[in-house]
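Worked problem 6 (solution included).
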Amino acid sequence: MNLDQQIQALIDKAPLYRIPPKWITEIAPVLVDYATELQHSEYYILQSQEDGWLLTTLSNRAQVNLEKNVIHAFSTLEDANLFSSVPDPEIIALPEPVTHILFEMVGRDIVDSTIFFETPGNRTTGAEIFRENLLNRIKEHRQQHWPSFNSNPRNLPPDIA
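Solution. The predicted structure is:
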């Protein structure tokens, strides 16, 4: 699925997210900008049937109180399946369109970032996209292109995704 098709699929699913399709249309250029910076149109996300996408809490070795919650997005199924040193039959890897991953980041305030592992076989180095940066870019885009949106802050639901 190319990026335009991915965005259209998000727009079509807007009622499932309980948001107007217009909101996805408004943020689509930012999602596409980020997606074009990445190498793949879809990534494999580890998930469980009960809890959805697998979040990993990473700690800073120098500052033990500093933690962040990340989603790992793998370029190949094999890399996703080899990520855990102890395989869990309850966890599966499923492909997700890149714009959908970015959209989910917008609506999940528990997620600090997503690490996109671009190179097959390399599960240690990836491109990290921070949720806060994505939200700031969406805000800037809206201020530039949708000024009426800013005049009514109640237009944005607290849980957009």
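Discussion: The longest helix spans residues 21-37.
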